[in-house]
């Protein structure tokens, strides 16, 4: 009974701290961004009505990164005081630290776009190289704290599957880089990445709570949920602030690393179905456009615009409808994934 109380506290405490810090930061941080003229430039090839969002402060991801970081540190200290600090508790710190590295890459990208006035920011190769490097750092850090678990849960399989290290490492690198960029693509409408990741965070919190020994995972997941809820206050349509690549790369890493650390990276296809569809739509559109241009002399499109949330916009859906439906789909799939983990 005592351990249930401690895990309940380790869920509640980081959630409250992350939410409070993020929500309190908004009224101070957003006007500061405006004074610095750190406004988002809207690309011309996007929907025309998005041009009115030009100048909206970006780099708002700093708000929830700070909230999550403070929550993780305070809650980990609390766990240590209660005698629960070990390698499993340290995982929360490692996940935050590595996610922060990805957030720093996003910050550099945002800085180049906003201050240097280069709308595309870092090159694709630069981003990929840094993301791959930080994914390697994560594996190394987990190895040294004894946090690597080679057993994975696979959907529709009623036992854990052991994966050899030579398969585990490249798979982890692929998952991290893939998910980070998928979440980045999802951040294209007010509140979309925030709402979807809030639900995914709830899923991770529920999964980590089950065995009563994943202290670090529980703390980080609860902090992630609190940070997303606090940020949504300012990020819902019409957004007062955008998270920027600072926030979306941090969130992508957080989602990927949580899935890996809990031994359920394959389930990211289910719980991160929206992320997956956003990425797949871009791949399909680009591939088909190049193919038809080569074959017919002109490029043709499958979707009206990608990522796919723009297709729904061009089809007449408003931002609230898209965010609501995408978030609801994520909630249903997260519930299904949780049931599979619990009962299969």
Describe the model.
It is a single chain. The chain has a two-stranded antiparallel sheet with strand order 1-2. Helix 2 (61-81) packs parallel to helix 8 (244-261). It has one domain. The longest helix is centred in the N-terminal third of the chain and has 34 residues, at 2-35. The protein is mostly helical and 344 residues long. Helix content is 71%, strand content 2%.
How many separate structural domains? 1
In terms of structural class, how would the helical and strand content be classed?
mainly alpha
- Describe the main β-sheet briefly: 2 strands, antiparallel
Shape: globular
Radius of gyration: 20 Å
SSE order in H/E notation? HHHHEEHHHHHHHH
Average residue-wise pLDDT: 89
Report the strand count: 2
| Major sheet: arrangement of strands | 1-2
Helix content: over 70%
Q: Helix tally?
A: 12
List the defining traits of the structure above:
globular; 2 strands
Tell me briefly what this model is:
The chain is mainly alpha-helical. It contains twelve helices and two strands; from the N terminus they run ααααββαααααααα.
């Amino acid at each position: 009974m005592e351990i249930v109380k401690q895990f309940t506290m380790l869920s509640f405490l980081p959630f409250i701290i992350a939410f409070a810090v993020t929500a309190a930061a908004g009224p101070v941080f957003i006007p500061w961004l405006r004074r610095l003229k750190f406004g988002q430039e809207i690309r011309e090839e996007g929907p025309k009505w998005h041009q009115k969002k030009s100048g909206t402060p970006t780099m708002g991801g700093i708000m929830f990164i700070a909230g999550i970081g403070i929550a993780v540190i305070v809650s980990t200290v609390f766990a240590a005081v209660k005698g629960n600090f070990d390698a499993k508790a340290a995982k929360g710190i490692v996940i935050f630290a590595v996610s922060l590295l990805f957030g720093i890459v996003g910050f550099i990208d945002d800085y180049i776009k906003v201050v240097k006035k280069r709308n595309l920011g870092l090159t694709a190769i630069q981003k990929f190289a840094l993301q791959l490097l930080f994914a390697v750092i994560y594996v190394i850090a987990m190895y040294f704290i004894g946090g690597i678990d080679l057993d994975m849960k696979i959907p529709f399989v009623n036992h854990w599957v052991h994966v050899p290290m030579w398969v585990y490492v490249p798979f982890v690198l692929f998952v991290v880089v893939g998910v980070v960029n998928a979440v980045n693509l999802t951040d294209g409408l007010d509140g979309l990445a925030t709402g979807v990741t809030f639900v995914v965070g709830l899923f991770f919190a529920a999964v980590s709570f089950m065995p009563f020994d994943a202290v670090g995972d529980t703390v980080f997941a609860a902090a992630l949920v609190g940070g997303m809820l606090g940020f949504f206050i300012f990020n819902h349509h019409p957004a007062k602030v955008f998270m920027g690549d600072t926030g979306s790369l941090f969130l992508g890493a957080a989602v990927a690393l949580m899935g890996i650390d809990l031994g359920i990276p394959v389930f990211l296809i289910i719980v991160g179905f929206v992320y997956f569809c956003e990425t797949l739509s871009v791949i399909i559109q680009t591939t088909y456009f190049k193919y038809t241009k080569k074959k017919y002399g002109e490029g043709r499109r499958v979707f009206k615009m990608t990522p796919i949330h723009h297709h729904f916009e061009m089809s007449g859906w408003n931002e609230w409808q898209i965010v609501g439906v995408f978030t609801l789909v994520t909630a249903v799939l997260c519930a299904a994934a949780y049931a599979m983990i619990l009962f299969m």
